[in-house]
Design goal:
alpha+beta; elongated; five-stranded antiparallel β-sheet
C-alpha cells in the first residue's frame, strides 16, 4: 500500500503546495527510488515525469520544503531529493542548525521579519551545511504558513549551474540602483565560493563617464560584499575605498597584455607573495580560511573594451577552482556587466537631475523674509529624480517671490521642464509681472513644450504640472498668491493659528482649452512673524488617508514651529515627522517667515496729479531724509529722482499719484505709482528729443530701476545707493 503523499492533502498551505510540486520531479519513493531501489521504482514508475535524460532531470532543479514553528524549529520537511542528501534535518531542531555559523544572524533576522510582517522573502542564495562538512548552495524563499497554522514555510531550490546562471542574470537586472545591482551580483557569485565582493571603479560608482583613458589610474571602491557578517579589522568592507596599491595591483593583474581577463590565485602563499605586504593582506583577504581567489573583470563591450571593476570570489584551499567553474564565473559576470553599466548611467542621470534640482533650491529670501527649504528625493529605485522645485528670491523692487512647482514625471525630461519653468518664472516676476500673469505665460510654455516634436515624440509630457506663486510686500505686509492646480499653502499667524489658504481651485498648467480660466489672485495679510508653508504633494499624500487629512497634519506640524526656532531645523523636523518612510514621490517643503520693514523705515504719500505735485513731493521727501540723517549727496540724488518720476507721472498718467520711500539695507528704494498703463522705456535720447529724457536722468542716478503693474495702474521703482 502506498504511503500517502503530501500532495494528497486538501490543505493549501505553502508547505503542501511546495510538497505537491515535488511529485512533478521526484519519485514517491524519495531518495531510495532516485538511487535505484527496485521496490520503490516498481511502485512509482507511472508517477515519474518522463525526461529525456532521467539523471539530468533529477539534478536540473530540485525543490524541497521545511515547515517551522514560531520558535524557528523544524516541524516537518520534504527534502527527499538526492541533492539534499546529507542535510541533518531533525524534527524539533532549530532550522539555523543547517546554516554556516556566520549566516545565522542574517537568516534569523529574515525569518523573524517574515513572521512579524507576513511579507515573503523570495529567492535568496543561501548555503546549507551537510553532515560531512560540505555545503549545498540553494535558492531559499521564506513564506508565512497558511491559517490556521502558524509559523513559516521555507522552500529550497538546488539548481544546476546553468539554471543558476539564468536565475542570477534575471535577478541582477531588476534594479537600476548601482548598490543593489552590485549586491545581487555578489549574492549570485556566492554559489561558487565562501565570500564574494564587487569592487567598482570610482567613476562607475559615482555615475561618471568611464573611458579607456585613465584605466591605468583606476580607483576601486567596494560596492558589495557577502555574506553579511562581522569582518576582521582592516578588511575593506562595503563603501570603503581599496588602498591605492591594492587598486593598482588588481587593475594590473586583470589587464595583463592589455586585455581584461580572469585570474586565479590558488593558495594563501601565492596571495601573500602577490600582495607583498601584511597591510594589503588584511585589506583584501577576508579570513585565514579563505586561501584561494578568482578575480573576474567586469568589462563593458566596446572598441576598445572598458573595465568597470573587479568581482572577487574567495574559497578555502581544499576547494580549488576548476576550469568549468571559472568559465561559469566568467559567463555570469560577462552577462551581467551591462546591468552594472545601466545602473551607472542611471546614477549619472540621477546625479545630474539632483544637482539641477538642488541648484533651484532657494539660497536666501532677502532682508524681509527668512526662508528654509527641504528637498527629499524618492527612494533610489524610482525612475530617477522627480520634478519638484521650490525657489525664493528678492525682487528688484524690494518684494520677495516664493515659488513651488511639481512637474509631471521623473528623469531628465522632467528636470529640463522644471529648470525652464523655474527660470522663466523668476525672469517674469523680476520684470514686474503679477503672479497670475506669470502663470498664464507658464501655461502657454507647457502647452508649447507638449507639441509633437519636443514633447510626445520624446515620450514625455508635462501637461498637468502644477505651480504656486506668492509675492510678499514687506511694506504693506500682504501677500498676493496665484495657483495652477497646486495644493493650498499653509499660513500660520503670529498667534499660532494655522490653516490652509482658501485658494480657488484651478486646473494644472497646459489644461485643455475648454478647462482654461483666468488665473485668480488671492491676497491676504501676513503680519510680521507669520509663517507660510509651500510644499508638494509627496509630503502630505498617503494612500491610507484622505488628502485633506494629510494637509491638516502638515498644518498641525507647522503650527508648532516657535518664532525663535531656527527655521532650517524646523523644516527638517516637519519633513521627518510627516514624509513616508518609503516615499513614492519626492518631498519638498519651503518655509517662509515674514519679517517686513520696520514702520520707521517706510513712508507713503498720496498726491493729486497737479503741476505742483513734484514740488510737494520734494518737500515731503526732503524732510524725511533729514530725519533719517541721509548724506547730502544722497539726498540731492533722491530729490532729483523723485522730481523726475512724479513729473513723468503727472504728464503721462491720470488719477492720484502715490510716492513711497523705503530705507532698505545699503540703499533707498523710491516708488511712484499712477493709474496709467503705458510702459516707460529708455529711448536713445537724441539731443533735440524731449521724450524719455527724464528716464535717462533716472538711469544715471540709480543702481537699478524698473516697472511693475498693479490692478489700478503701474509703479515705477528705483534704488539709490546710500
Amino acid at each position: 500500500m502506498d504511503t500517502p503523499s503530501p500532495s494528497s492533502s486538501s490543505s493549501s498551505s505553502p508547505f503542501d503546495l511546495v510538497s505537491s510540486a515535488l511529485g512533478e520531479y521526484i519519485p514517491r519513493g524519495g531518495a531510495a527510488a532516485a538511487a535505484g531501489d527496485p521496490g520503490a521504482r516498481g511502485e512509482t514508475t507511472a508517477r515519474v515525469r518522463v525526461h529525456p535524460n532521467p539523471a539530468a532531470g533529477l539534478q536540473e532543479q530540485i525543490l524541497g520544503a521545511v515547515n517551522l514553528d514560531r520558535e524557528l524549529r523544524i516541524t516537518r520537511s520534504n527534502l527527499d531529493a538526492p541533492v539534499f542528501a546529507g542535510l541533518d534535518v531533525v524534527t524539533g531542531s532549530p532550522f539555523v542548525d543547517l546554516l554556516p555559523p556566520w549566516d545565522v544572524p542574517t537568516v534569523t533576522r529574515r525569518l523573524r521579519q517574515v513572521l512579524e510582517t507576513g511579507e515573503a522573502h523570495v529567492a535568496r542564495v543561501q548555503r546549507l551545511r551537510r553532515a560531512d562538512g560540505s555545503e549545498l548552495v540553494v535558492s531559499m524563499s521564506i513564506l508565512s504558513a497558511a491559517a490556521p497554522q502558524e509559523g513559516l514555510t521555507v522552500s529550497l531550490i538546488a539548481m544546476a549551474r546553468r539554471l543558476h546562471l539564468y536565475a542570477a542574470e534575471t535577478a541582477i537586472g531588476t534594479s537600476l540602483d548601482i548598490g543593489e545591482t552590485a549586491q545581487s551580483l555578489a549574492e549570485s557569485l556566492l554559489a561558487w565560493g565562501d565570500v564574494a565582493a564587487i569592487d567598482l571603479d570610482f567613476a562607475v560608482w559615482t555615475g561618471e563617464g568611464v573611458t579607456e583613458h585613465g584605466q591605468g589610474r583606476i580607483r576601486l571602491r567596494r560596492a558589495a560584499l557577502v555574506p553579511d557578517r562581522v569582518w576582521p579589522e582592516g578588511y575593506v568592507t562595503e563603501g570603503d575605498d581599496l588602498p591605492k596599491d591594492a587598486s593598482h595591483l588588481l587593475s594590473q593583474a586583470i589587464r595583463r597584455d592589455d586585455a581584461a581577463q580572469a585570474i586565479v590565485i590558488p593558495d594563501r602563499e601565492s596571495i601573500e607573495r602577490v600582495l607583498g605586504s601584511p597591510k594589503l593582506v588584511r585589506a583584501l583577504v577576508p579570513s585565514d580560511r579563505s586561501a584561494g581567489v578568482a578575480c573576474i573583470p567586469l568589462v563593458l563591450d566596446g572598441s576598445p573594451p572598458v573595465v568597470l571593476g573587479v568581482a572577487e570570489v574567495w574559497r578555502r584551499a581544499d576547494r580549488p577552482f576548476n576550469d568549468g567553474e571559472l568559465l561559469d564565473l566568467q559567463e555570469l559576470v560577462a552577462r551581467t556587466s551591462h546591468h552594472v553599466d545601466l545602473a551607472r548611467q542611471h546614477q549619472r542621470e540621477h546625479t545630474q537631475v539632483l544637482a539641477l534640482q538642488r541648484r533651484l533650491l532657494p539660497r536666501t529670501g532677502g532682508d524681509t523674509v527668512e526662508t528654509a527649504s527641504v528637498y527629499q528625493p524618492a527612494t533610489p529605485d524610482s525612475a530617477g529624480v522627480g520634478g519638484d522645485w521650490v525657489n525664493s528670491f528678492p525682487l528688484p523692487d524690494g518684494r520677495t517671490a516664493l515659488v513651488v512647482g511639481d512637474v509631471v514625471g521623473h528623469g531628465l525630461g522632467a528636470a529640463a521642464t522644471m529648470g525652464q519653468l523655474s527660470m522663466e518664472a523668476r525672469a517674469l516676476l523680476s520684470a514686474g509681472l503679477a503672479p497670475d500673469e506669470v502663470l498664464e505665460h507658464l501655461d502657454k510654455t507647457v502647452t508649447m513644450l507638449d507639441d509633437a516634436e519636443s514633447g510626445l515624440a520624446a515620450g514625455y509630457s508635462a501637461l498637468g504640472s502644477t505651480c504656486c506663486i506668492a509675492v510678499y510686500d514687506p511694506v504693506s505686509h500682504r501677500v498676493a498668491l496665484s495657483s495652477a492646480g497646486h495644493l493650498p499653502p499653509i499660513l500660520v499667524l503670529p498667534d499660532g493659528r494655522a490653516a490652509p489658504l482658501a485658494v480657488r481651485p484651478h486646473p494644472g498648467l497646459g489644461a485643455e482649452f475648454a478647462l482654461r480660466e483666468p488665473f485668480g489672485v488671492h491676497t491676504f495679510a501676513a503680519p510680521p512673524g507669520s509663517l507660510l508653508a509651500l510644499y508638494t504633494d509627496g509630503l502630505v499624500e498617503d494612500p491610507a488617508v484622505p488628502i485633506d487629512e494629510g494637509i491638516g497634519r502638515l498644518a498641525d506640524a507647522v503650527s508648532t514651529v516657535h518664532p525663535w526656532d531656527v527655521l532650517e531645523e524646523a523644516a527638517r523636523w516637519v519633513v521627518s515627522g510627516l514624509s513616508p518612510q518609503r516615499g513614492r514621490d519626492d518631498v519638498t517643503l519651503l518655509l517662509a517667515r515674514m519679517i517686513g520693514y520696520r514702520k520707521g523705515d517706510t513712508a507713503t504719500w498720496r498726491l493729486p496729479a497737479r503741476d505742483d505735485a513734484a514740488a510737494r513731493a520734494r518737500t515731503l521727501v526732503s524732510a524725511l531724509l533729514r530725519e533719517w540723517r541721509t548724506r547730502d549727496d544722497t539726498r540731492d540724488r533722491v530729490l532729483l529722482l523723485v522730481s523726475e518720476l512724479v513729473t513723468n507721472a503727472v504728464r503721462f498718467a491720470r488719477g492720484p499719484i502715490t510716492v513711497r520711500l523705503i530705507r532698505a539695507g545699503h540703499g533707498l528704494l523710491c516708488e511712484v505709482g499712477d493709474t496709467g498703463n503705458g510702459r516707460p522705456r529708455l529711448g536713445r535720447g537724441e539731443l533735440l528729443d524731449d521724450g524719455g529724457r527724464g528716464l535717462h536722468v533716472v538711469h544715471r542716478l540709480t543702481a537699478r530701476w524698473g516697472v511693475r503693474w498693479t490692478d489700478t495702474g503701474k509703479v515705477v521703482w528705483a534704488v539709490v545707493a546710500r
